Amino acid sequence: MWIIADHLIQQPMGILIFIQRHDIGEILFGLGTPYQGQGLMCKAMTSVIEFLKQSQKLKKIETFCATEHLASRQVLEKTGFHKQQLLHAWTIFPLLGNDLKDCIHYILPLRSK
């Protein structure tokens, strides 16, 4: 887990969470509303991906993003993730409501085999 913070005022701004299952990792992320739209998450995600690429054990990183969450989709696509498949009524995203949401499964390959 990484906390995205402004070190000058020691204020947390967001979070990146990485969960590893064997040779596949899943990444989850969020950024406080006042800090969105400034490129901070792309910068943080790029740094975390570079760190994770050093692992010889990881084959790929995956994540799931609500189709309606355009800013998160842009972060994923800018940092090299590829759309894998559209999943209908797949999961609940609590910040977006209590109903099942469509989401996109994204994958970032780290090594070929």
From TrEMBL:
**InterPro entries for this protein:** Acyl_CoA_acyltransferase, GNAT_dom, N-acetyltransferase
Q: Which domain of life is it from?
A: Bacteria
Q: Where is the N-acetyltransferase domain?
A: 12-82
Q: Name one GO molecular function term.
A: acyltransferase activity, transferring groups other than amino-acyl groups
What is the protein name given in its UniProt record? N-acetyltransferase domain-containing protein
Its source organism is: Acinetobacter variabilis
